[in-house]
Amino acid sequence: MSAPQDWTPSTSSTPSPRPGPDHVVAGLKGTDEGGADLVQLLTPEGERVPDPRFDPYAADIDVEALKELYRDLVLVRRFDREGNALQRQGQLGIWVPLLGQEAAQIGAGRAMAPQDMAFPSYREHGVAWARGVDPTELLGIFRGTDHGSWDPKSTGFHLYTIVIGNQCLNATGYAMGQKFEGKVGDGPDSEATICFFGDGATSQGDVHEGFVWAAVYDAPVVFYCQNNQWAISEPTERQTRVPLYKRAQGYGFDGIRVDGNDVLACLAVTRWALEECRTGNGPVLIEAFTYRMDAHTTSDDPTRYRLADELELWKLKDPIERVRVHLVRSLGVEPEFFGEVQAESDALAARFRQHCVDMPAPAPDRMFSEVYAEGSPAVDAQREAFLAYHSSFEGV
Ligand SMILES: Cc1ncc(C[n+]2csc(CCOP(=O)(O)OP(=O)(O)O)c2C)c(N)n1
Ligand SMILES: [Mg+2]
Fold first, then answer.
1. Which residue lies with its CA nearest to atom 17 of ligand 1?
2. Cα 375 to the chain's mean position, in Å?
3. Are 197 and 261 in contact (CB under 8 A)?
4. For range 41-45, the mean pLDDT
5. Which atom of ligand 1 is least distant from the CA of 227?
6. How remote is the CA of residue 164 from the centroid of ligand 1, in Å?
7. Element (H, E) at 35
8. What is the pLDDT of residue 384?
9. pTM greater than 0.90 (yes/no)
10. Is 305 labeled as catalytic in the residue annotation?
């Protein structure tokens, strides 16, 4: 693939020529993977490639640390597959698969310091894992029994947001709070926020507003866009003329594109970006260039809008396989280790499944119970009406 021709609007007083069809096509191509700007530390073939700028941020990743990252990737993929199966068997109303995005999420999640705060969308099961949220805690949302049962404060992992892009406002506001409270600086306890959203979300006003506010308040927030190429059936090239990371320039902060299937690169780049934010050089936009290998959700059928070839190409860039190959070929890790991780993943899947099928149905008034801390007459009236309606089915 040839490198995309760049077209940058002129900033001088001389008007730049309007973009012609060639520029538009170049912009669309600019949403392709090509280009020297993609940060990659581990190739799809499992070769470690040097990167003077980002190597220091992965310098501590020795064999043992890489084995831990591999374990994360495998376990996260395993319970994600189990979630899909549980939906197919009628145990969950819906499941949102992360297949293919494990490295983008584990790299970012493991880059965070304990005091940092993450604002996810609805697909960030890997980040949840990295923040110590037990996977069974995700099940209630997809079984329809609760809206998320983990504690956002102690985990540093906010509840899921279904409204596309909305969490960018929450994350920016939270980061502004970190700034106002003097938590940005050189100290070991300085804090940053990271906000997860998709390529499609970048077309939402909330994301734009978040970028503007974060920029003018120097808010310590990393905007982490997982460009998985699709917003349900809408491909990225129909959302933007320029590569998404280049949009940061227009808001006045750094934008960087990383190989989202390379866990080392995602870890290093996110560590760098969080450090920038903690020390007052934020915000930063990261575009993790990856691929949604499964359907948008279990309610979607991607064969209706994309070709199987595309998936086959991305399978060659699998985020887990490249780490396995590197561990075996370059670091001499024995098969025993992979067997142990496999056994651990089977046990996790069994525990996940058992927890799901054992979940009690919530009491009918459950959905009214945590709307307001101190109750509300309107909600009370709704609860009474619903309970009366519900009891009318008794004995039917
Ligand atoms: C405000 C809003 N509009 C539309 C939707 C419906 N919707 C759900 S997911 C989605 C696509 C999001 O794509 P992207 O941001 O790329 O994230 P991905 O699902 O690929 O991770 C849309 C349009 C929504 N949830 N919220
Ligand atoms: Mg997407």
1. 198
2. 34
3. no
4. 97
5. 16
6. 5
7. none
8. 95
9. yes
10. yes
